[in-house]
Design a protein that fits this description.
The protein is α+β, with helices and mostly antiparallel strands. 29% of the residues lie in helices and 18% in strands. Antitoxin component of a type II toxin-antitoxin (TA) system.
Length: 82
């Protein structure tokens, strides 16, 4: 298996990753000491899950006074009874 020092790996990372993806695994070494092995994934990484925004659209109703709900009670907690 090919051994690549860290400096070379940083310099040629794109090329090395492409080669690893094609099955040419390699080891990255620091000061001649093997540190990590780079190998291709057995299965490609799946695309991110679809966005969940809007999955409850039409199933919930937000009250018209949503932004002021409980305002009096909250003011009492902070300001006390007047």
């Amino acid at each position: 298996m090919r051994v690549v020092n860290i400096h070379e790996a940083k310099t040629h990372l794109s090329r090395l990753v492409e080669q690893a993806a094609e099955g040419e695994s390699f080891v990255i070494a620091k000061a001649g000491k093997p540190m990590v092995r780079v190998v291709a994934l057995e299965e490609p990484v799946e695309k991110a899950a679809p966005s969940r925004f809007g999955f409850l659209r039409g199933q919930l109703k937000v009250p018209d006074d949503f932004d002021t709900m409980g305002q009096e009670e909250i003011e009492k907690m902070f300001q006390g009874d007047k």
